[in-house]
Each structure stands twice: as C-alpha cells, then as structure tokens.
Amino acid sequence: MQITSTNGNTSRSNNHNKTLKYICSYIKYKFDSLFAHGLLFIIPLLTIISVFIILIFSIIYYYTERTDNYEDALWQTFTRILDPCAAADDEGLKHRIISGIVILCGLVIVAILIGAIVTFMEEKLHELKKGRTTVIEKNHTIILGWSPKIFDIINELIIANENQRNPSIVILTSKDNSEVQYMIKDKINNSRNTRIIYRNGNPMSINDLHKLSLNQARSIIILAPEINNPDVRIIKTILAIRNNPRRTNIHFHIVAEIKERINLEAAMIAGEDEALFVYADEIIARIIAQSCRQSGLSIILSTLLSFQNAEIYFKHESALVGRTFYDAVFAYNKCSVIGLMLSDGTVKIFPRLTTIINTDDQIIVIAEDDDQIILPSDYLLHINNEYSGSTSSSLINHNTVLLSNPMTRRATKKIERNLLLGWNNKAPLIAKELDTYVARGSELHILTNSDIITQFINEQLVNELTKQKIFVHSGSLINKFDLEKLNLFSYDYVILLANEDSEQQNLIEEADAECLICLLYLQNIIDKSNNEKTFSIVAEMYDIRNCQLANTTCADDFIVSPNLISKYISQLSENKNIKKVYDVLLTADGPEIYLCLASMFVPLETPISYYQILQETLKYQCLAIGYRLMKYLHDETRFFGIVLNPDKQEQIIFSQNDKIIILAEKFMSSAPRSTHILNTEQLFALNRDIYQNRRFAANLAFLIKIHAFHDV
User: Fold this and answer.
1) Pfam families, alphabetically (predicted)?
2) Residue 556 CA to chain centroid, in angstroms?
3) 246: closest CA among 282, 209, 277, 278?
4) For residue 103, what is the enclosing H or E element?
C-alpha cells in the first residue's frame, strides 16, 4: 500500500509540474505575442507598471510621515522614477532605501522605454529603406520594372514636370531599394521639382501594386525586364493592374514595352483600350529605314520626342473653328501647325489646306511648351495679309516665273543597292521596311559571319521580301579585309547594326566599340579610295555618349535606339494621342519628314522670313516645319544645324546645301533637272485646285498682275 501511495504522489507531482510548465509556456507565449506588437503594447504596459509603482510607493511615503499630504507623496514618487537626482536630499536610512527602490524601478522602466523606441525607429527606417510603405500621391507617374531605359525616361519626365505643381515619380521594382536609389542618383544629378519615390516589390503582385495609389496615378509605365520572354510578365502585370479589386472607375493610362510581335495581340487583349504598347524593334527599324534616306532625321525625331525642346502638342482652339487648315498654319507666330485630330480621334498630318476645323477638332502643333501655344491678338491680320505683297520680286521670279511642275516633286521608287552590316533582331524588320521604299529589282547585301543567321535569311527572309533580292556575304564588320571586298561605292545606303546579343547592359559598350571600329575602317577605305563619298551611312548605337566619339567618322546619322525609345515612352505617358502622330510619320504611306535643298523653294544668299518660306513650300504641296544650316553640321551645341519651329518673323539667309525641313507625301527631296516658264493662265490653273478660298484667289491675282507687268 505504501508503494502504491508513493507512486500516486509521484504521478500527481509530475502532472502538477507539467501543468506549471504549460502555464508558464503559455504566459511566455502570450507575453511574446504582445511584445511583438512593439510600441503599441510596450508603452501601455510600461504606463500601467509606472502607475502601479507610483501608487504603491506614494502610499509608503505618506505613511512613513515624510510628506504632509498624499498629493506630495505622489509627486515625490513620480519625480524619483523619472529623475534619480530628486532623491539627493533624502535623509534617513529607511527613506533612502525606499527612494533607491523607486529609482531602480524608474531606471528599468525608462531603459525599456528607450530601448523600445530605438528598436521601433530602427525597424521603421529599415522598412522605409526596403520601400514597403504605402504611397499616398496624386497625379503621379508610376514606373513598374527595371531596365537601362529608366534613366532616360526619368530625365524626360523631370523636364516635363517643370511647370507642374508638386510632381512625383513612383518606381516599383524587385531590385534592392538602396541599390536602385544609388544608381538613379548616380545617373540623375538634378531632379528639380520632381520627387522620386522608391518602392520594393513585385509588379505582378496586386498587394504590392496597391501600395502605389494606382487609382490616383496620371500614367503607368511598364518596362520590359532583361530576362527571357519578358512579355509574359508585362501581360501579367497589366492584368494585375486592371483586375485589382480595389480599383475605382478610373480609366488607366498604361504604356508598356513589348519585345516580340507574336505577343502583341495577347497584350492588346489584356490591356484593351487602357494600354498602349511600344514594339521598340519595329519603331527603330522604321526610323533607320527613313534615316538612311534623310540624313538628320534621327536628330529631328530626337528633338521632337524630347520635352526639352520643340515637341508635339494637341490643342482645341475655339477661335479657329470654322476656319481652314491653311488659316491655322499662319495663325501662330511661335508654333508650327502640322495637322488636325478630328472629333472621332483620327489624326490627319498635313491635311488638305482647305480642310475646315470643326468644333471638336484639335490642332496638332510643334511648340516649345504647351503654355507657348498662344494665338496672338492680331492673328487675323497674319492670316489675311499673308499674300499682301510683302514678297520680294526676287522671290516671285524664283517661284513664279521659274516655278517647277509640282508633278516632278513626286518621288518615284527606284532600283537601289543597299548594304546591311551586322545583325540583330531589328534586321529583318529593316529589310521589310526598305522593301516599301524601293522599286522591284533592288538588292540588299548583308554582311554576317553567323551560319544560323545565313540559314534564316536564305530560308525565311527571302520569301518575305517582294522587291529586293538578298545577297549574303560572309565576314565580320570589324574585319577591314571583309569590308574592302564589298565595294562600298556601289551601294546607295549603308546601315550598320549593333550585334544581336549586345542589348544586355554589360555588352553595350562592347557593341558600340565594334560599331566605332567599323566606322573607322569605313572612313579609312573612303579616304584611301580618293573618291567622293556617294552613299549614306547610318549607324545604330546603344549609348548616346559613344556618339560623341564617332562624330569625326564618316557616319551621316546615328540611331541611339534605347534613348529614342525612352523618349517615345515618356511622350506616350504624357499624351497617348502622340502614338497616332508617329504611326503616320514613321510609315511609308502618308506624310513623312524630308530634308530638301533650300534652293528648291527660295533664292539663296537673300534674307527671307519664315512666313515666306511657309508660303513657298505650300506651293509644292509640302509644309515647312524648320530648316538646317549645314555650316553647323558638326556643332552639337546648335543641334547640328537643325532648327525646328522657328519664329515666323525670323529672317534667314540660306547658303548652298542648306536645307528646309518639310512634311510631305512621297516628295522628291532633290531638285528637279528641268524647269519651264509658265504663262499666267498656266500659273492660275496650277494653283487653282490648291488655293480655293477667296484669300488664295486674291493672292494669285496679285501674282498674275506682277507677272504680267514683268512680261510687258
């Protein structure tokens, strides 16, 4: 029986110990859980402990007859908890012991409080550095993802925001936040009045996107990451934005990159009418195909796409409603009207001069800034007096008596022999674009040392071209011997492309270096031949800084593809209608930008106002938007001689080889070989269809009288 009793006591003792351990563990767990709440738990806990200590020891002080009343006892206890020096005048062992205990309790409480506050601040700073907090902004631009284009995009947005109030850019990327801040601050020296806010997260995560105040954003830019098949992530990000359960009725303005055309249809389904997609390779291919034919075009496009200089704007001008497009062209002093956006959203670049501007139509203008698009108070005088007789007799003789037949200005496609040096993803697109400009029987020669590329050309690309025959030459663009074998002077245009795998950041410098070496070899071949350079060279590069190294080479134009695409994306983020304009300008069908000899329109070495230049170009069914002075061809500070949107009162003196920049459709940019003298009846018939309103007829009558006077 005793053994049984002993075993029973031992069992009860073990159960009791287990219960105590469980209770202690439970209390500790709950205490840890409460402490995990940080200051929200610690401060109330310390407050309760402090109140309890003050109440207990104030009673002790009161009953030890050290104070006259209880209020004084409370004050003495409170001061000793916060300030140990308050007990310096205490007397008596018992009173000093009580004060010492109160002081020790106070030190512990204050130490815990300070430690908790410091820990909280460290956690908060760490959270801020990680970029995990919610952004509360309005009318801001959001950039999702990371690519080398982000620096140029931010620079352009900073310029665009200069006249905005409290603008901001919010960047969400999965890269480390401190690394992102360091790189952006290293590349962007002055953000001016724009605040750049960094957040860390996954652009495809709805929770991370919610931190960016999507519903209040002005626009959202999605950059393609430098990974395999980035389009999948782009599409998923768009779905996360548009299907966010917290979105309001706002209509999102999304601009996204797409790397492969095959994914464009799926992306458009995902984005519907809320997303614009930039297929960079196709845009650059179009620019290269046009630039090789129009030297200086890349500089013009870079200027128009930048917020720093003259750019394209849309404006509803009620004063011009009911008037013609011709009236709008001459209405502004410091703006160049280039087209109309109709009420249904259709963009017309350089429409018929007699097109009437309706109530909901917007004019499309080139201006230095949107606040510069101001209709002068005397705009009616400008419109009505354009052909008032201010035209000099020399100008009349040039364009009336020796007026060329406008039909000779229409460009006809000709057989060409072009050369493509190097290969990348844009090469097939460039070949297809060239196919729209040349006549049947043209040749495209390609230099490459890749068997895979050669196989692709022979098996696929040859079947996609209808007017060009392809010839593949085996060799390297950095091998002078391979270049010499090509007989450069037999080609019309030479296009130099960066290597296929060079779009990665770490290979950009290597790709540009190869282009520079090739240009040096080409320059050397030209110099040794003692022949005049008769062909145009267009080179693609990735870093705009490397163009400065190549300015002394034989290249006629440089296409810095990442820089142009970055500017284009920035423009679209500010105004989605810009895409409609460049869709017209960068295609073979419709008006394009041409650089034509000034002597085709106006006399040389004679001062002439830009108003008169507009008059003369309109006679040839083209619209002047600027000019190029060739004496500044290599002066970067003067934009290589290119002036867009000049003041219409400006007097210009053109010299030999200077050019006028025009908008026209299939225009012949070189001077015609033959001219003939027109009689008055021919002159009137020639212009009657172009100028059909009363003011034009009055002007023509004036010119006819002068012409008749000279005949007499």
Assistant:
1) Castor_Poll_mid (PF06241), Slo-like_RCK (PF22614)
2) 25
3) 209
4) helix 93-130
Could you say which DSSP state residue 460 is in? I
Question: β-strands 468-474, 442-448: how paired?
Answer: parallel
Measured CA to CA, the distance from residue 633 to residue 641 in angstroms comes to 5
Q: Does residue 489 have a pLDDT over 60?
A: yes
Give the number of other Cβ atoms within 10 Å of residue 250's Cβ: 11
Residues forming a β-bridge with 557: 538
User: Which class is domain 33-130?
Assistant: mainly alpha
Q: What SS3 class is residue 108?
A: helix
Q: Spell out the alpha helix ranges (H) of 297-450.
A: 297-305, 325-331, 379-384, 393-396, 427-435
Report the range out of 58-72, 263-277, 555-569 with the highest average pLDDT: 263-277
Mapped onto helix, strand or coil, the DSSP state of residue 343 is: coil
Residue with tokens 């006629």: 556
- For residues 191 and 195, what is the distance between their CA atoms, to the nearest angstrom? 7
- Compute CA distances 602 → 57, 331, 460, whole Å: 103, 22, 48
Pairing of strands 254-258, 659-664: unpaired
Phi, psi of 177 (to 5 degrees): -65, -40
Question: What type of residue is 587?
Answer: T
Tens of pLDDT, residue by residue over 404-438, are 444 345 567 899 999 999 999 999 999 999 999 99
Residue 91's SS3 state is coil
Evaluate if residue 127 carries a pLDDT over 80.
no
The CATH fold of domain 140-273: Rossmann fold (3.40.50)
Instruction: Work out the average pLDDT over 256-263.
Output: 94
Which of 57-81 are b and which e, b meaning 16 or more Cβ less than 10 Å from the residue's Cβ? bbebbbeeebbeeeeebbbbbbebb
d(CA 575, CA 255): 10
Q: Could you tell me which of 592, 262, 283 has the C-alpha nearest to residue 433?
A: 283
Q: What is the mean predicted confidence (pLDDT) over 57-70?
A: 74
Residue 597 burial class via C-beta count within 10 angstroms: exposed 0-12, middle 13-18, buried 19 and up: middle
Q: Are 514 and 498 in contact (CB under 8 A)?
A: yes
Could you list the beta-strand ranges (E) of 547-658: 557-560, 592-597, 608-609, 623-628, 642-644, 651-652
Paired tokens of 689? 């269809």
How far CA 448 is from CA of 188, 457, 498, in Å, comes to 38, 11, 12
What pLDDT, on a 0 to 100 scale, did the predictor assign at position 674?
35
Q: What is the DSSP string of 150-169?
A: HHHHHHHHHHHGGGSSS-EE
Tokens standing for 395? 């100008």
Using alpha carbons only, what angle is made at residue 376 by residues 370 and 380, rounded to the nearest 5 degrees?
130
User: pLDDT (tens digit, 9 = 90+) per residue, 348-391?
Assistant: 999 999 999 999 999 999 999 888 899 988 887 767 754 333 44
Report the C-alpha gap between 566 and 555 in whole angstroms: 23
pLDDT-derived band at 109, boundaries 50, 70, 90: confident
In the chain, what are the domain boundaries?
33-130, 140-273
Residue 399 has pLDDT above 70, yes or no: no
Torsion sign (Cα): 560, 566, 571, 572:
positive
